[in-house]
Write a structure and sequence with these properties.
alpha+beta; four-stranded antiparallel beta sheet; two-stranded antiparallel ribbon; 6 helices; globular
Length: 191
């Protein structure tokens, strides 16, 4: 089992251990601020499963099963994780509704194309994500979502999210990353 974080484009291992028998274990790291971490279960040479979670100082408890490690995971810990789970829960409902629409249109021989439905869903996801980030301007989750969930949105929306953030969130890891993303996109668009 590996506790990892993303640094640049690589996953860096913070702590690890080999599980032999007892399924209860502890991994440790020091965090300067809330951050997305990864708990990777290496089942064998060809099979890995990963749980993504928002960690903060203090204890984060993850319960799962070996068989369905990432699917059955229950995470208890940071307030950022609670906010991220709220976002993911609603996004899952949107995904399910989209799948139902796809099935219904397929069964009724609708003239709406798959690509049109996909574009509609992407628009819904982006709209929901931007609104969610704007509503959670006092959490590190907001700039995280802006950078990783809606990277192709217009600079206008990224900038709107950034300007709404509280000063401590602007100064956080993901707030700084959002600002760098905006600046890079502005530079690319002006060239």
């Amino acid at each position: 089992v590996y506790l990892q974080k993303q640094q640049d484009s690589l996953l860096i291992t913070l702590d690890s251990l080999e599980i032999k028998g007892d399924p209860n274990f502890e991994l440790h790291t020091n965090l300067d601020e809330p951050e997305v971490l990864y708990l990777k279960l290496d089942k064998n040479a060809s099979e890995e499963e990963m749980v993504v979670f928002f960690a903060d100082s203090g204890v984060t408890e993850i319960k799962s099963t070996r068989k369905l490690f990432n699917v059955n995971s229950k995470i208890k810990g940071s307030k950022q994780q609670d906010i991220l789970e709220e976002y993911l829960s609603t996004l899952s409902k949107l995904n399910n509704r989209n799948l139902d629409k796809l099935q219904s249109n397929f069964e009724s021989n609708s003239t709406t194309t798959f690509n049109e439905q996909q574009q509609s869903f992407i628009k819904q996801k982006y709209t929901y994500t931007i609104q969610f980030a704007l509503n959670n301007y006092n959490s590190e989750v907001a700039p995280y979502l802006a950078v990783y969930e809606v990277p192709n949105t217009t600079v206008h929306f990224l900038d709107t999210i950034y300007n709404r953030l509280t000063q401590p969130i602007k100064e956080s890891k993901y707030g700084i990353l959002l600002k760098e993303t905006i600046d890079l996109r502005i530079t690319e668009e002006s060239n």
